């Protein structure tokens, strides 16, 4: 028994004629006849007396048709409920965001979402990529703003923008006075990484053409998690960093240098589980993020997307904690 078959018997009851009912249901008359026959054979009851003109329901058929009408009303109510839920711009939403993006995007995003969805209460949580992906699958958070693609078939990714990487240099670096940054022979051992940010580090190693961080900074190991700390280490002449462009928005001076095109970028997306239903809210969030970005990130430019989930470094580091 299907919803479509119930629609057919209700249409037959209203039209009392196979051809007219088939037209109302936008199906061929033989197709409608076959579906009625299949339904009657399944339940073992004749719903219509075909020997009478006009077509007339049997006694039991009348009861079945009445129940079918009730079921179809409830189906419509479910559909209306789902549509309303998808378009609801109120309630609570748990939002996760990677820590290399949060300090720079969230202040802009909050202001934009206050206007776009004033009745939504956002609970914002910073986290590492692996943690956010797990939280999405378990329902601990509803949406994550993170670098993609994740490679996770249980998650749905809605790309918002491409964020370029830039080189962050001290004033004595050989490229400090150049317009664009190009990798220097001594730079590979000077690259500063973030502790536990395996997806982020994997992207940096990809940009530098490295497979592992084992030979980076042999004398010191920096257990840090902040891009701002990386910047301070660079200013102290303790290495150089490759950082996301948004982290340089309030910078003055010439400490950061863009790459030549194709510019290395990370893809930033809104990521949800495959059961997430608040589609309108997701659209509002996408629009709010895009609108609050600086114009330089909205322009077209030649780029190469840096992946992280298939990096040998990422796979090696994550396997330590499984």
TrEMBL record:
<dbReference type="InterPro" id="IPR036388">
    <property type="entry name" value="WH-like_DNA-bd_sf"/>
</dbReference>
<dbReference type="Pfam" id="PF03466">
    <property type="entry name" value="LysR_substrate"/>
</dbReference>
<protein>
    <submittedName>
        <fullName>Hydrogen peroxide-inducible genes activator</fullName>
    </submittedName>
</protein>
<dbReference type="InterPro" id="IPR005119">
    <property type="entry name" value="LysR_subst-bd"/>
</dbReference>
<dbReference type="InterPro" id="IPR000847">
    <property type="entry name" value="LysR_HTH_N"/>
</dbReference>
<keyword id="KW-0804">Transcription</keyword>
<dbReference type="GO" id="GO:0003677">
    <property type="term" value="F:DNA binding"/>
</dbReference>
<dbReference type="GO" id="GO:0003700">
    <property type="term" value="F:DNA-binding transcription factor activity"/>
</dbReference>
<keyword id="KW-0805">Transcription regulation</keyword>
<dbReference type="Pfam" id="PF00126">
    <property type="entry name" value="HTH_1"/>
</dbReference>
<dbReference type="GO" id="GO:0032993">
    <property type="term" value="C:protein-DNA complex"/>
</dbReference>
<keyword id="KW-0010">Activator</keyword>
<comment type="similarity">
    <text>Belongs to the LysR transcriptional regulatory family.</text>
</comment>
<feature type="domain" description="HTH lysR-type">
    <location>
        <begin position="1"/>
        <end position="58"/>
    </location>
</feature>
<dbReference type="InterPro" id="IPR036390">
    <property type="entry name" value="WH_DNA-bd_sf"/>
</dbReference>
<keyword id="KW-0238">DNA-binding</keyword>
